[in-house]
Amino acid sequence: MTDPMGPWRLHLAPFLRFSAVCLLGTIVLFPMYWMLVVALTPTGFSRALTGFVPEQLSFGNFVAIFTERPMLRWIVNSVVVATLASALSLLFGTSCGYALSRLRFRGAGLLMMVVLVTQMMPATSIIVPLYILFRDLGLLDTVQGMVVGHISLVVPLAIWMSKGFFDRIPPDLDGAARIDGCTRLGAWWYVALPLALPGMAAIFIYGFVTSWHDYLFAHALVHSQELWTAANGIASFRGEYFTLHELQMAAALVFALPVIVMFIVMQRWIVSGALTGSVR
Amino acid sequence: MPGVRFEAVTKRFGETTVLDGVDIDIAEGELAVFVGPSGCGKSTLLRMLAGLDDVSSGRIWIGDEVVNARQPRERDIAMVFQSYALYPHLTVEQNIGFPLRMTGVPRHERRRQVEAAAALLELTPLLDRYPRQLSGGQRQRVAMGRAIVRNPAVFLFDEPLSNLDAALRLQMRLEIARLHREFAATMIYVTHDQVEAMTLADRIVVLRDGRVEQIGTPRDIYTAPRTRFVASFIGAPQMNLLDATLIEGAGSSTLARLGSADVPVSLARAAPSGTRATLGLRPEALVPGGGGPFGLIGTVRHAEYLGSMLYLHVSLDDCGQTVVAAAPPNRAVQVGDRLGLRFSADDVHVFDEAGYRISDGRPEASPSHSPAGQPGQAPVGDP
Predict the structure, then answer these.
(1) If you count residue pairs, one on A and one on B, with CB atoms under 8 Å apart, how many are there?
(2) For residue A258, with 0-12 CB atoms within 10 Å meaning exposed, 13-18 middle and 19 or more buried, which class applies?
(3) Quick count: other Cβ atoms within 10 Å of Cβ B53?
């Protein structure tokens, strides 16, 4: 029996799919578009916008955030803190993850659960004890303190993620490497690590973005303006009585760029099928 | 090339004992095949020899040195894994040369040795490819190339052909046999495939539940299985095992009552009358309408034509058990036909209730130089 709705169904389904994609795309992308519009509007004129396109384009906001505010300094601080925090988290995470993946020892499962539980606690719940601890250790208002704080945010998931990546690498490869002349560390370095590169790239990006976006730790652990990260800097455009929306949006746009660039640079590492051919 | 010795080797995982006091002596230059069903501990034994698993107790010798505490890289062994375990991020050339690189062999010397190994295994055109670009058989050859390039004291093979199709498996089996001849190295080969075991081995080690059931040449194992398990595990189709009762006397005058037939059997030790026993008859020992002095009658339930052989599944009248008999392929037999099966008393294997061989007949057995093991005991001399 032929379906009378057949031709409709044939055309309707792709149309509905396309519409859904457009709708979702608009919801996700419009705030960014509006950020761009406001950033390109002359300072003080964003409230006068009546349409979806700026009436006149101005790059003055971008110039202002670099000349009148230490935006460059804040970006550099963010880059330093995020790079150090994600690199150190990667180092801790991969070494712990590899050990948990390959070594059999009592309490390994419990350890994994404890690591996961730390991730379930909101960061706000540990900020006060962390503040007191850092004050006693002299880490308040230092880049090192901020890096350590961010590592505590990233490492638990880095351990879980890297264990997952190493679990997917057949243990026979480590065994073969150890028979072929490697120590355990050598097997990790020459075989497991190169194969886990895509996963490590993902962990690094996760760590970088987490640290880059953090406002709570950066705000609570650092007071000096010269040590502010860009997240702190952007917040400073909001005053008690008024907010410089145009400058803030310009700063937010600049703030987003490094992360986008890093995604583009590192995405070639995040490739699937790296293990094809090793087994069977 | 040194030999290998397992001395009272035991392996426990928590409360579970996987290997229990295993004693095996493998001579210099010998190709020993460990065979047994899944979970019998054969791969664990190999991994312990490789140093990838710890030994719970006992000692493992390579040559005249105990290697229990030695790291895998210090044991002068090479291993071909069931999964091939090729390094996916390295080319064929880099894979084969990896052990040489790790031992600090200079680049030009490495290149020379890799090319020699590749030529031996017909891998030369594939040296620049990655494992993912190779077929299963090619990957297997690369794994073997990586093993032979370092010229180890002992080669270990852990079910290396189990992922290949039948034709390729035969080809690679011949390849391994050729390598064994050319290198004259001590080789240990683990498999659950009895055809591989029978065709490759100088000696077979049959394992079951973490214990050695029997050690012997393929001919020994086939013609004089030491236990009912070995009798049923080695041989395809497997040996027919029939319940019987020993009814008279001892030694060569013993009769075994099988249905309505009384079969004289020769026992290695006396057994009281009425002892329950299992008689073993290989399919090829049961000849349909043949000239043997003893006979069983039954009905053909199923016929399997294999081209070179016709296997008949016959339900016996006397005891109701089904046996498999091998007939010439051109024999005209229909399902439901009545059939008489003849056999010779020399072809009958007798096992006691515990499953140990009590008959002493060893038809066609060749003189053996090899030690053999009772289940769970240290190797002893041949019967």
Answers:
(1) 90
(2) middle
(3) 18
From A176, A178, A195, residue closest to B81, measured CB to CB: A176
Tell me what pLDDT residue A226 has: 87
> Sign of torsion, CA B108 B110 B113 B115?
negative
Q: Of A202, A212, A226, whose CA–CA distance to A256 is shortest? A: A212
CB contact under 8 A, B72 and A178: yes
The side-by-side arrangement of strands in the sheet containing B31-35 is B77-80, B154-158, B186-191, B31-35, B203-208, B211-216
Residue partners of B14: CB distance under 8 A and separation at least 6: none
pTM for this structure? 0.78
What pLDDT, in 10s, does the model give residues A223-275? 888 889 988 888 888 877 778 888 999 999 999 888 888 878 777 666 543 44
- From chain A residues 193-212, the ones with a CB under 8 A of any chain B CB are 194-195
Facing residue for B83 by CB, picked from A195, A273, A280 = A280
Exposure on the CB side of residue B195, measured as CA atoms within 13 A:
9
CA B194 to chain centre: 5
Q: B78, B128, B73: which is closest to B102 by C-alpha?
A: B73
How many helices (H) and strands (E) chain A has is answered by: 13, 0
Distance in Å, alpha carbon of B136 to nearest chain A alpha carbon: 7
Q: Which residues of B fall within a CB distance of 8 Å from A190?
A: 98, 102
Digit-coded pLDDT (tens) for B310-350: 999 999 887 778 999 999 988 888 899 888 888 887 888 99
Interface confidence, given as ipTM, is 0.82
pLDDT tens by residue, B139-197: 989 999 999 998 899 999 999 888 888 888 888 888 889 889 888 889 999 998 888 99
Contacts of B103 in chain A (CB under 8 A): 181
In this structure, the number of other CB atoms found within 10 A of the CB of residue B169 comes to 19
Chain B residues near residue A180 by CB distance under 8 angstroms: 73, 78, 98-99, 102, 146, 150
Residues of chain A contacting B81 with CB distance shorter than 8 Å? 172, 175-176
Nearest-by-CA chain A residue for B99:
A180
Nearest CA in chain A to B149: A180
CA distance B237 to B204: 19
